[in-house]
Amino acid sequence: MLAPFVLSLAALCPPAQQATGPLQDPFEGLPAGDRELDAADLDVLEALGVLRRLGAPPRGAELGGGTIDWSPDGKRILQVNQEGACRLWDARSGVAAVEGRLTNGGDEEATPGARFLGDGRLVACWSDSRLRAHGAGDLSVAEYLGGPLPGQRLERSADHGAFATVPPLFADDASCSVFTATPLRRALSIASEDGTITHAAIANGAEVVAVLGADGDLSRRVLVRAKGGDVHPAEAPLQAWIDAAVADGQTVANVAVSPDGALLALGCHGLVALFDVASGDLIEALDTEGALVSSMRFTPKGDRLVVGDFAGFVSAIRTKRPRVLFTERAGFDVVLALAIAPKGDRVALVTKADGLVLFDLKKKRETLASN
Fold first, then answer.
1. Residue pair 113/65 in contact by the 8 Å Cβ criterion
2. Three-state secondary-structure class, residue 244
3. Closest alpha carbon to 146 in 126, 166, 162
4. Closest CA to 200 of 229, 172, 163
5. Any idea what the Cα angle at residue 349 is, between residues 306 and 335, rounded to 5°?
6. Cα–Cα dist 153/125, whole Å
7. Which DSSP state fits 71?
8. 175-181 and 162-166 beta bridge pairing
9. Which of 158, 210, 215, 352 has the fewest CB atoms within 10 Å distance of its CB?
């Protein structure tokens, strides 16, 4: 399905420059409605350096990954892997209390996009682009909530009150749907008209939503929407910083927004940059002494930013008078995703192994590992 795409990129990127040279529209040569990428296509994109420039994990690193989330009461941890298998872990003992699949009694199954609602139920994006809620005790019971929503991953605010969908890479409908949980309603949609969306971040109450994407030439772009306002490109200083970083060979791989919507963080290779959302001004660029950032979250109070990377390191960053508090290896070779406990003291991590790893931010070490 990707042959015309491969030919156009190969012609534009000589072998010695494929990883860093400018690329034209990645959709060039693809028939309309035929942009769903399979594993072979993704291998080609990785070889051309496209996935690396978008901050995507190395091919194969996503095995066993998926979604991880902490319940509002801090007692349970949700993990859904790439195949839709679901585990609900006891956060104290590390025992998987519930194991199964998020199903609806039919052919459709949930994608790895699943999060906790504020009332303790689970909300999941499905393969039929519908949104459904599940009781935590019976994974097969689903309540239809709405759709279609073009997404396969879900991001949520720190207070569980707002959610955003993230579309598949190079999806036909490259848009991010934002909705509030109480009552459940779609608040807005943020579209990338000539590129793709790779990450989304959302503040409490959907006060601020930030989307990290790429234009047709793979130039990184951030779109921001403040509550009651229009969706607009990030303020000039922020975008200028991104352009300069990419020109210097840096990869802008991830985005996070503080719970109060005041701060925006960009995760790069061994570097995290904090910006003022309103002005776009750089507050601080901090060296984590790690690898490419794979996941990052602000604590519920917003006083810390927790960062995981593809080399298995976890960093904690103080947001007031910013500095890196520590960078510690968490005892494995890759951090694919992370979730922070409601009290902000522990982090649940997704690794290549299909299990649960907890990291204590005060003790600065791994405290539990279960398979």
1. no
2. helix
3. 126
4. 163
5. 80
6. 7
7. -
8. antiparallel
9. 215
Q: Write out the two tokens for 315.
A: 């960093």
Q: What is the DSSP string of 274-307?
A: EEETTT--EEEEEEEEEEEEEEEEE-TTSSEEEE
Whose tokens are 């500095």? That residue is 323
With H, G, I as helix, E, B as strand and everything else as coil, classify residue 30: coil
Instruction: Tokens for 13, please give them.
Output: 């990127």
Residue 5 vs residues 8, 42, 130, 170, 210: alpha-carbon distances, Å: 5, 12, 30, 12, 29
d(CA 174, CA 168): 8
How many residues does the structure list for the chain?
371
The span from the CA of 302 to the CA of 294, in Å, is 19
Can you list the alpha helix ranges (DSSP code H) found in 60-200?
A: none
Which letter does DSSP use for residue 13 in this model? S
Q: How far apart are CA 313 and CA 117, in angstroms?
A: 29
Q: Are strands 220-226 and 67-70 parallel, antiparallel or unpaired?
A: unpaired
Q: How far is CA 49 from CA 19, 56, 209, in A?
A: 4, 10, 28
From first to last of its 371 residues, the chain has per-residue pLDDT tens of 333 333 233 332 333 333 333 333 333 433 333 345 555 665 656 555 666 666 665 554 443 456 899 999 999 999 887 666 788 888 988 888 888 777 665 556 656 578 898 888 888 877 666 777 787 776 776 677 766 665 567 899 999 999 888 877 766 667 888 888 777 777 888 887 767 888 899 999 888 999 998 876 667 889 999 877 888 999 999 999 999 998 898 989 899 999 999 999 999 999 999 999 999 999 999 999 888 898 999 999 999 999 999 888 999 999 999 999 999 987 666 888 899 999 999 999 887 665 678 999 999 888 877 76
| Side-chain-facing half-sphere of 299: CA atoms under 13 Å | 19
What does the alpha-carbon distance between residue 69 and residue 293 come to, in Å, rounded to a whole number? 18
How does strand 196-202 pair with strand 184-191?
A: unpaired
Instruction: For residue 70, count other CB atoms closer than 10 A to its CB.
Output: 25
Instruction: Give one DSSP letter per residue of 217-268, joined into a string.
Output: T--EEEEEEETTS--EEPPHHHHHHHHHHHHTT----EEEE-TTS-EEEEE-
State how beta strands 122-126 and 269-276 pair.
unpaired
